[in-house]
Amino acid sequence: MKHFKLLLTFILFTTLGFSQGIMGTWNGKINVQGTDLPLIFKIDKTETGYKSTLTSPLQSPIALPSTMTSFLDSKLIVQIVNLNIEYKGEFKGTEISGIFTQRGLNFPLILTKDAAAPLYGSRPQEPKPPYNYLIKEVSFTNPVDKNTLAGTLTTPKDKTEFPVVVMITGSGSQNRDEEVFGHKPFWVIADDFANKGIGVLRLDDRGVGKSTMGSKEDTTENFASDINTAVHYLKDNSFNNIGLIGHSEGGLIAPIVAAENKNVKFIISMAGPGIAIDKLMLLQTKAVSKSNGIENEETDTSANFNKTVYAFVKNYSGSNLKSDLRLRLIAEMKKLPEEQLGTADQMNEFVESQLQQLTMPWFVNFIKYEPNAYWSRITIPVLAINGTKDVQVTATENLNGIATSLNKAANEHFVIRKFDNLNHLFQKAETGALSEYAKIEQTISPEVLNTMSNWILEKK
Questions:
Q1: Up-side HSE of residue 383: CA atoms within 13 Å toward CB?
Q2: Which helix (H) or strand (E) holds 58?
Q3: 3-class DSSP string for 265-317
Q4: Which end of the chain has fewer CB within 10 Å, C or N?
Q5: What is d(CA 192, CA 279) in angstroms, rounded to the nearest whole number?
Q6: How many CA atoms lie within 13 A of 19 on its CB side?
Q7: What are residue 45's DSSP bridge partners?
Q8: C-beta separation of 109 from 99 below 8 A
């Protein structure tokens, strides 16, 4: 939800020849909806064959480990079964030429060992030393799931009493800086806040950076237990004025935690959900298409298809979701215009890829969320903000939803703020399209930084 995630896990190589030639770092790019997406494969030799990682650097700095690959007679085949991804290429000594496939879509991909072109422009807001505040590496264990969480605590110098916030990332695996497209928004926020007299605890998500893995069954509830643990860590270390700042899905996790943990004294929701998640995702589909200049009958057809599928998953009460959903997907696809169906193989590939995503424990849990169930219990101060160019969590509907819920709670201490021309990352944007995120030099609007810090300091 926060940022689109094209690629997740990768590669184990076996080969009979060209061992020295195939080893090393290979760079290439695919074109996705008009945006060039760089991919970096790093191949190393092991005692039993080869291993490698894949990085999609515009999306995340994390190098993702392999699952399965073969290399025989100059033919490279890489498969990521759980994501329905395959790369077939021919090794030609100085390049690998092939086709990258995901969710039934094919992308030409040529890999070379040439130095990759610079990925981003300047990131002028990224903090640089010397730092006029204290920085401490921390770690602690979630007593519920037994996973270890690692992060950074930044605190003002020469102060003993000050507010401190726990930052909460959005969907997908994020590091403590919530790094994406070369931007480090949580690091920028931490730097700005610490210089103004506000402490910040930011954490690596499960399985990222120095935090240990959770489970394949993890849901938003598990992530909420991590943040609950973080609040207790701060409380145990003599911090009393503790708040939560959640971005995107993190803006849903914040009220889940605060509804139960009375140590939380205030919340900031940055583009957090305020309406039922299935409705939010349908609005997202249309808004993303519109930002890409696509508004036609096919867009409406896709939205209606998604609406039916989301409702099926959300309301399912049977015993075999994957099997029953497969039948529903096939039935719904047969209703589509013939020109949208493609071949039988393409239709089957699409169905299987959708099943992988729609039956993930996280997604099944997430689609059922009604944010009102939590926001309507929150009586502590709340600042809810969003940008008018946000196409992932649309501003008007979600901010209105949060306000309605807080009114139900008889909350008299909340502020709703909409920022003109800011996107989901709170950057100044032209269209809000996902393709703009990497191109914009601004990491986060200074107006947003000042609004949040001033509001927090008023709560002293």
A1: 23
A2: none
A3: EEEEEECCCCCCHHHHHHHHHHHHHHHCCCCCHHHHHHHHHHHHHHHHHHHCC
A4: C
A5: 34
A6: 11
A7: 50
A8: yes
The length of the chain is 460
Q: How far is CA 65 from the centre of its chain?
A: 18
Rounded to whole angstroms, the Cα distance separating 283 from 253 reads: 21
Pairing of strands 85-91, 133-141: unpaired
Question: For strand 105-112 and strand 133-141, is the pairing parallel, antiparallel, or unpaired?
Answer: unpaired
What is the maximum alpha-carbon separation in the chain?
71
- 448 and 419 in contact (C-beta within 8 Å)? yes
Q: Is the pLDDT of residue 401 over 80?
A: yes
pTM: 0.83
Determine contact, residues 271/386, Cβ cutoff 8 Å: yes
Q: Strand 242-247 vs strand 164-168: parallel, antiparallel, or unpaired?
A: parallel
Q: How many Å apart are CA 353 and CA 102, to the nearest integer?
A: 8
Please report the DSSP string for 127-185 in residue order: --SSPSEEEEEEEEE-TTT--EEEEEEEEETT-SS--EEEEE--SS---TT--BTTB-H
CB-CB contact of 136 with 153 (8 Å): yes
Strands 199-203 and 148-156: antiparallel
Q: Locate 71 and state its tokens.
A: 């290399």
Going by C-alpha positions, the residue among 189, 202, 201, 203 that lies closest to residue 125 is: 189
- pLDDT tens readout for residues 250-299: 999 999 999 999 999 999 999 999 999 999 999 998 898 888 787 766 67
β pairing state of 85-91 and 35-45: unpaired
